[in-house]
Amino acid sequence: MVRPMELRQLRYFVAVAESGNISRAAQKIFLTQPALSRQIKALEEEIGQCLLERQAHSIRLTPAGEAMLHEARELLARVDGVVERVRTGAAGGRLRIGYAPSLASGLLSPAVANFTQVHPGTRVELQDLSTGEMLAGLEAGELDVIVTIAPRGETRGLTWTPLVRSPWRLAVGLKHPLARQNRVTPAAVAAEPLLIYSQSDYPEYWETVTAWLKEHGLRARVAGEYNGVDSLLAAVESGLGVALVAERIARLFPARTRMKVVSAPPGDLCIAAGCRTDRASDKRLAVFVEELRGAAAGMVDGG
Question: Which InterPro entries does UniProt cross-reference here (predicted)?
Answer without folding.
Answer: LysR_HTH_N, LysR_subst-bd, WH-like_DNA-bd_sf, WH_DNA-bd_sf
